[in-house]
Automatic annotation (TrEMBL):
Superkingdom of origin organism: Bacteria
Source species of the chain: Pseudomonas trivialis
Alphabetic keyword roster: Membrane, Transmembrane, Transmembrane helix
Protein's UniProt name: Glycosyltransferase RgtA/B/C/D-like domain-containing protein
Membrane-crossing residue ranges in chain numbering: 21-46, 100-118, 130-148, 192-209, 215-231, 264-282, 288-308, 328-347, 353-372
Amino acid sequence: MYSLKALFFDKSWTNIKEKSFQIKLAAFSTNVAIAMTLAIGLVGFLTMGTDLWDGVIVSHAVSLERPDVYHEWFGEAGLFFTPYIYDFIYLFHKAVNYELIAKIFTVFFLILSAREAAKVASKYFEIPRQMRFYTAILFYLSPAWVLYYSNIYLMHSLTLFATLICTRYIIDRKALALCIPLLLLSFQQSSNAPLSISLILLSCVFHHTTAKDRIINFGIIAVITVGFFGLRKLFPTHGLYETYNEIHFKNIVSINNYLSLTKYFVLLYFPSFIAAGLALYFQPNKKTLSVLSVVFLGILFNGVAYIAVNKIPSLSEIGLMHGESLRFTFTSTIFAILLLPAIWQSLSEVPRLRFLTLTVILIHACVINIYAHEGKMKEVLFQRGLVHEIKNLPPLPACAINIQSTGVGTLTNYEYGHILYRVYGETNQLPLGDSRDPAADVKVLYERFTKESYKKKYFMPKQMPKCIVSMNVSTSVGTWGFGKTFTKYLSDDHSAIVAVSISGTDPL
């Protein structure tokens, strides 16, 4: 009877031909799975032909040639630099489809971020070139990035890359005068600040071990911290976003929040955590324990920015049609994927287990990634189907449209507004997402959104509607298998996705 250690330490592994065959077999199966996954994801991402979630606000402003709408929006949220990112895309909107060019740039910066993630891995772990590539792929396969179906995340893609490359240059003591200001600009995504700090602290553990280097690093961390809070003070949230992302100390010290975050990452990267346990079993030494502990603490530390505002990711949202909580994992993902090179390094004396672990981790990531893309494809299909069915109805009156849904979650009012805008090309109806008291809700909306720019932003008619129409929407798209979803997604047939009925017109 072989023990677990004896099984993986079998001396026959030293046979060069056998070793070469095992490596090639593992690499081939893994590369095929990766290639198929990347192809499916890119096809879904680049052929959707619309926008989702908050991205519809920018998309609508661009279609109206009203960049002032999104400038005001981001300004009220304290994101002083973000509107200029979208201004660059806006420059080309007459020559190139806005949604497509925004997505191309989003993917471009995501690929650059993956490349930087691989450089982080190679800086701190003893891994071959092939492992750097697989670390970058694991980063790219994170289900968090399927949220980029909404072009609102172009800002996140760009600023994440800026944070990674600027932090790397700072750690290497290159171009500090340029990189520190650019790094502060990248804190438009607030969670980038903990990411940069945690990477610098990681450098103190593995790279900058002299007292002089560590003092310099802590000085840079102090500059980053002061700069981060200084910018928040200089560009505060105001207007509709006055209380946006308020930090509460009780959230930061809540053990339950950290347990929820830990649960999310342990379940999402379950093969990696199992492999980490095996690494400790086969190499039960201080180095292995410290490396894996540092990586795990990095995951938690990068969740603090989200925990502070009580925003925790939900594993159940990975394959759902709606839901944006995966954005609360953007920066922790950097450390989560560092488990792969850490495990590879720790299993240096167990080559059989090394390649088995690598294959399982990457194929698991492929399955999760396709599942996440499937959810967003279903969301796009639902919107396509709803647009198709409304176009086949008699024109809706200029009323508030109270929408009840079956088989799908309720969208935001402005997402419904974007759908109606795609149908009619103008904003005459006021959509409401399953309101229990439409008259009261309409009144509140017009009392709150008094500015003309607010009405443009949220697809509201200039004058308050005086009538209400009930619309019932039902779909079974959420129950479709991947094959049916993908083939329907690529077709031009948008029928038989959604059923729509109108139940009457009543005065408000």
